[in-house]
Design a protein that fits this description.
The complex is a heterodimer of chains A (about 325) and B (about 350).
Chain A lengths: L2 E14 L2 E14 L3 E5 L6 H8 L7 E10 L2 E2 L5 H8 L4 E4 L13 H12 L5 H14 L16 H13 L5 E5 L7 H18 L2 E6 L2 H7 L2 E6 L2 E7 H5 L6 H8 L39 H5 L5 E4 L2 E3 L6
Parallel strand pairs in A: 3-8, 3-9, 6-7, 7-8
Antiparallel strand pairs in A: 1-2, 1-4, 4-5, 9-10, 10-12, 11-12
Helix pairs in contact in A: 3-4, 4-5, 5-6
Chain B lengths: L6 E13 L3 H6 L5 E13 L3 E5 L6 H8 L7 E6 L2 E2 L5 H10 E4 L13 H11 L6 H14 L5 H5 L8 H13 L5 E5 L7 H18 L2 E6 L2 H7 L2 E6 L2 E7 H6 L4 H8 L42 H5 L6 E2 L5 E2 L13
Parallel strand pairs in B: 3-8, 3-9, 6-7, 7-8
Antiparallel strand pairs in B: 1-2, 1-4, 4-5, 9-10, 10-12, 11-12
Classes of the chains: A alpha/beta (about 325), B alpha/beta (about 350).
């Protein structure tokens, strides 16, 4: 398989007055053409920060402290802001931001909003061309033509999210980063949006990074899953390997235990006691040591590196050494 | 009224209609229009059970919760608590009632006064209800409460402000505040929907153990069926201001009758392999209609894929009993295909 995006040893640190927060610390993964990679973890584990790092726009005081983001044989971390804006953002990688559907400009119609984005990126394009493209993508996400003239307040949550998805896709990027696109929606609408993303994936053969905290949603959508904890990758595996639940990182195991199953009556839900470590003074050994149920002596002393334990399945845990 | 000891709370034909016109225009219009947020619902909550109200946004579940709390006055119908009709009580009576019924809100960030320390947050209900006038007693009490919801070390947290706590910790504090007056009934409105997944399970487990320790009864309002299955004994499914199906939690999930309940169940994501290639089956059309314009006939017919002509014209069906306390309101239940998840 061809690789659409390769991330190697990427680091994003926040330089705060209290110290350096290692929000994303030395992570490596790749995204194959046409696949959906799920990025999961608790809040504060660095999922969204990873998304921002890929687009080259860390939130101040954050800075990319090392590593490469390779797309089409070019390392885009070396690009200047202007280059990123001209060549990368929305042309090659676009993003559906978390809660973006609630941030649509209330005084713009959907048409205004999309037209502005289109013409900003395609300066040579005519208005007619832009209009055609907008309508095409509105239809593609299951909206009718008259949405073009509507204001955000006239749309329901599901419709707004469809508009945001259309806006992320209509410049035909190769990669789209979806940050919690279904959170805050009703269950039924959530399922409809998931179906839409599945359908678009087949139609447009687009590669995507799907960020969420919910392992149940990820099971529906991701071909491969990448589990993050405290800025590091704990496990990467295929959908079958992760949800088959045979060999798992203790953290993934705990996360799955905390996700209720509808059709199996459980009397006790498992939870992960404690809180994630302080990222300014991270522990010396494994990040998960304090909360782990199968920890060993070595875990406290030395953090495990990520290793492939079976084809396509890598785990960072001393148990699998 | 005869006192029924099995039921802590009975709701009979409860309605909340919000008028859509105000001021002068309301005086001159002949026909008044209303948003029928809750449109005649009845149910009974047994002592010690967890009763779950489930539905989409706009189904009226929060309005129901607020009426039970008496934060809203019902337009029609009765709320009977411990054999006493509380639907229109006022003054001291209402204050006494609210001591017995407490609420946990969805948003732990908005439900606490940011200028209060945690111990003040927890002492506030005692101050209002004039329980234990010494500061020492109230501090002791706050400490005990924090320990019971596992926000420890309690002494340290008592002097913190809400913004210094994580979302999970805040929600625990609001649960502690909820139980501080030892109420009989707690209305929990989406208590875990804003909480991180790993903590969510912990909070639900804690609420379960508080229920045992304090002898509580819960009304759990949510849109999430998978936690409802784990947490609740009885589930009532609401759609556009009415209950469309009600029964014990296992029956509702394993053997749903009403097409709307089936959609809700099919829409749930489960962490199991082999689902990426398949589309989810969602048998529903369009979007939820406005509660100001409730469709005639069965109110679900505009979105139902099984609806026929009669569903549009026949009067709205009442809840039908199919045994084991399981009721539903679909008149075509015999013609529906067998449910498969």
């Amino acid at each position: 398989m061809e690789k659409a995006l390769v991330i190697s040893n990427l680091k994003l640190y926040y330089y705060t007055s209290a110290g350096v927060v290692k929000a994303v610390d030395d992570i490596s993964f790749h995204l194959e053409k046409g696949e959906t990679l799920g990025l999961v973890g608790e809040s504060g584990c660095g999922k969204t920060t990873t998304g921002f790092a890929i687009l080259g726009m860390p939130t101040p005081p954050g800075k990319i402290a090392g590593g490469k983001v390779i797309i089409d044989d070019e390392d885009i971390t070396t690009f200047s802001e202007t280059e990123l804006r001209k060549k990368i953002r929305w042309k090659k990688i676009s993003m559906v931001f978390q809660g973006a559907m609630n941030c649509l400009t209330p005084v713009y119609t959907v048409g205004n909003l999309m037209m502005e984005t289109y013409l900003e990126h395609r300066k040579e394009a005519s208005n007619e061309e832009a209009y055609e493209r907008i309508i095409k993508y509105l239809n593609l996400v299951g909206l009718s033509d008259d949405i073009y003239k509507r204001y955000p307040h006239e749309l329901s949550g599901g419709m707004k999210q469809r508009v945001v998805i259309a806006t992320a896709l209509f410049l035909e990027p190769q990669i789209v980063i979806l940050d919690e696109p279904t959170t805050g929606l009703d269950v039924v609408v959530q399922a409809q949006i998931l179906n839409l993303i599945k359908e678009l994936k087949q139609k447009l053969s687009i590669s995507s990074l799907f960020i969420t905290h919910d392992l149940a949603t990820e099971a529906e959508i991701a071909d491969r899953i990448c589990v993050m904890y405290a800025g590091k990758i704990m496990e990467i595996g295929t959908n079958e390997q992760i949800y088959g639940r045979e060999k798992l990182h203790p953290y993934t195991e705990k996360l799955l235990g905390a996700t209720p199953l509808l059709h199996k009556k459980v009397n006790e839900l498992y939870f992960i006691p404690g809180v994630p470590p302080d990222l300014i003074n991270p522990p010396k050994g494994c990040m998960f040591y304090d909360r782990c149920h199968v920890r060993m002596d070595i875990c406290k002393e030395e953090g495990p590196s990520i290793k492939e334990i079976e084809p396509g399945h890598s785990i960072a845990c001393w148990r699998y050494k | 009224m005869e006192k029924n000891n099995d039921f802590l709370l009975e709701v009979k034909n409860l309605k909340k209609w919000f008028p859509t016109q105000h001021g002068l225009s309301a005086l001159f219009l002949k026909e008044k229009t209303y948003v029928r947020a809750v449109d005649g619902i009845s149910f009974s909550v047994k002592r010690g059970e967890t009763f779950c109200i489930i539905g989409e946004s706009g189904s009226g579940k929060t309005t129901t919760g607020k009426m039970i709390m008496r934060l809203l006055e019902p337009t029609d119908g009765d709320i009977i608590f411990n054999g006493k009709n509380v639907s229109h009580i006022k003054g001291d009576e209402l204050k006494e009632y609210r001591r017995n019924v407490q609420m946990i809100f969805q948003d732990p960030y908005a439900s606490m006064n940011p200028r209060f320390k945690i111990k003040q947050v927890l002492a506030e209900p005692l101050v209002i209800h004039k329980i234990g006038d010494s500061k020492k007693y109230r501090d002791e009490n706050s400490k005990k409460l924090l320990e019971s919801v596992k926000v420890t070390p309690a002494e340290e947290f008592m002097d913190r402000f809400p913004h210094m706590l994580s979302g999970g910790q805040r929600q625990r504090v609001s649960i502690a505040r909820g139980v501080s007056l030892s109420p009989a009934l707690i209305v929990a409105d989406e208590p875990v929907s804003m909480i991180d997944l790993s903590t969510r399970a912990e909070i639900l487990a804690m609420m379960k153990s508080l229920k045992r320790d304090f002898g509580l009864t819960y009304i759990y309002i949510t849109h999430d069926l998978s936690t409802a299955r784990y947490f609740a004994d009885t589930i009532a499914v609401m759609y556009l201001g009415k209950i469309v199906e009600i029964g014990n939690a296992d029956d509702i999930v394993d053997n749903p009758i009403h097409p709307y309940t089936r959609v809700l169940i099919n829409a749930v994501c489960e962490p199991l392999p082999g689902k990426v290639k398949k589309m989810k089956e969602i048998n529903i059309k369009g979007e939820i209609p406005s509660a100001a314009k409730i469709p005639p006939g069965c109110r679900f017919h505009t979105r139902c894929v099984f609806a026929d002509e009669d569903c549009k014209t026949f009067p709205e069906p009442d809840l039908m009993d199919i045994g084991n306390g399981h009721y539903h309101s679909c008149r075509r239940s015999d013609d529906l295909p067998k449910f498969k998840f």
